[in-house]
Write a structure and sequence with these properties.
This protein is α/β, with parallel strands linked by helices and 230 residues long. A six-stranded parallel sheet has the order 2-1-5-3-6-4, sandwiched between helices. Helix 5 packs antiparallel against helix 6. It is globular, with a radius of gyration of 18 Å. Strand 1, helix 1 and strand 2 form a beta-alpha-beta unit. The longest helix has 20 residues. The chain is built from eight helices and six strands. 35% of the residues lie in helices and 12% in strands.
């Protein structure tokens, strides 16, 4: 996959991609919200460029029924399939990886947090796989897009960390993050600003947008300030 077609040569990200796709046994299914397709600075194309086509499958949509997506339904019913989505019911991925020796399939939802929540809870297929989450011990390097909290990660970063854990290979994370780091560096050099998380802005009195009138949204902001999981 060549990434320079939509970018000037001086900001082509191809030199930062692996020469050959990474050899992994884990297969990723990226469930992408349609709104992500039109974003200029999205990370899934970078992720796909790092992996073999049969190890990174992208499905775009909001609703995924068994009739329309029989392959996905089969994947969701497979006992070795995992879905990466944080919550009270989720198990830390590290704990699952220790017990797993066979190749796995992992589903990752690509979208804003509200879009991901909508896709996860309104598709019964996604309630079938074992739900896992990453430990919140790293900060996002995707500094050109605002995240809700300091420990929220982009789809590419989630995949990089997850694959590193599942494959037990730390070099995978470094390799997949390299094009993202280059993308952010190029953007910052050409006038982009570092985006702090909404949590950081609220805690430091730097949030300059009008506070929402909706009580539910206002409550979510209060939880961010007080370090509660939302």
């Amino acid at each position: 996959m060549h990434l320079s077609s939509s970018r000037p040569q001086k900001v082509c990200l191809c030199p930062f991609l692996p020469i050959h796709p990474l050899k992994v046994s884990t297969c990723l299914y990226i469930i992408q919200h349609p709104a992500e397709e039109s974003r200029v600075l999205r990370t899934v194309p970078l992720l796909a460029a790092c992996l073999p086509p049969d190890k990174c499958k992208i499905l775009v949509g909001r609703r995924f029924s068994e009739d329309r997506y029989p392959e996905l339904a089969t994947v969701c019913r497979n006992p070795s399939t995992l879905i990466l989505y944080p919550g009270a019911e989720a198990t830390n991925l590290e704990d699952v990886a220790v017990m797993s020796s066979s190749p796995s399939v992992m589903i990752i939802i690509d979208g804003t947090w509200s879009q991901a929540k909508d896709i996860f809870y309104k598709n019964s297929l996604f309630q079938l796989p074992k739900q896992v989450q990453l430990k919140p011990n790293i900060s996002s390097q995707y500094v050109i897009r605002t995240q809700p909290t300091n420990t929220c990660l982009s789809t590419l970063e989630c995949a990089a960390v997850a694959l590193t854990i599942m494959e037990k290979n730390k070099s995978i994370q470094e390799t997949i993050l390299r094009p993202l780091q280059a993308l952010c560096s190029f953007q910052l050099q050409h006038g982009a600003q570092i985006h702090h998380s909404k949590e950081h802005l609220l805690k430091n009195g730097l949030y300059d947008k009008p506070m929402p009138k909706n009580k539910r949204k206002l409550r979510r902001m209060e939880l961010l300030v007080n370090n509660f999981k939302i």
